[in-house]
């Protein structure tokens, strides 16, 4: 889609076409609807409108009801920050006293929307003219103030009162980028800006060693799924400056600490036998290197110093981990495990595992269970040895 085609969607005929497609989409197939509309409108115009309707449907998971009034491209929607995460970031930025932000690589404006709603003056810059038009249209559709301009993030000016925000593109012509040196704008520029009042959204797999001194690194999960790492520049007067932070949404609960990551993503801590309860830390806690901190917080310990499970003798109410009641320890070897599960009349088995070389689907196939009941087992290491536990989930707090 080019700029002129997109602008046609904003006209009165374009809005009428979008409304008709939205109304008929559940009645006619995309093919039948498109074919009929092409007898009245040109093909590119119809294709753009049908695509927008499709993308609006996909966008509901990120933007809720706002999606029906917004505009997207496939790639930009994929990278766009979901509204809940963008809102959390905007509210945090506002609490730090920011009153103006420039989004250097704003895409379709998902973060601009959240910043504007938080009462922050927004200015967007993007090198793609189509995305600039879409970002402008999205702000207008939601009746939000702000300006968006075509420009290069590497050369764009940042006013003295503006906080620079970066959401570097993590896709190239070859697909998704997992390395910092493949980001656009370049990581060197982003890292340089983070020495001052800047914020950057980066991939959650970023290494702790790649985070600059004084930068607050916040790993964010939503409903248990790790979604991003947000870096807060060293120039902010934040009480958690320079720390590692885990935030879980939608509750917004946050914990922080120094972060003690192991190479495999777990962290160090005192180890001991499995108690009555077993806790699986949220991925944000694991990536932030705060597993040992969480264990201390809930009066627990690690069954193995290099595996991100926590165990306790008493129940613990925490938003930072999924809890299980340990019902029994089962044999770890497949033959003996099968016999134990048969004795329990298990036919449907769920396997959770961490720190062991087991493929749950393969194990379930090998067990050939035929009982009438169901069970959940956890396979892990305790003091370096493989162990199996029969568990049941605790009610979420």
UniProtKB/TrEMBL annotation:
GO MF: methyltransferase activity
Residues covered by the THUMP-like domain: 321-393
Domain of life: Bacteria
InterPro entries hit by this protein: Methyltransf_25, SAM-dependent_MTases_sf, Thump-like
Domain Methyltransferase: 101-163
Residue ranges of the region described as Disordered: 253-273
GO biological process: methylation
Keywords: Methyltransferase, Transferase
Gene3D superfamilies: Vaccinia Virus protein VP39
Any one Pfam family match given in the protein's UniProt record, by short name: Methyltransf_25
Protein name: Methyltransferase domain-containing protein
Organism expressing this protein natively: Williamsia herbipolensis
Lineage summary: Bacteria, Bacillati, Actinomycetota, Actinomycetes, Mycobacteriales
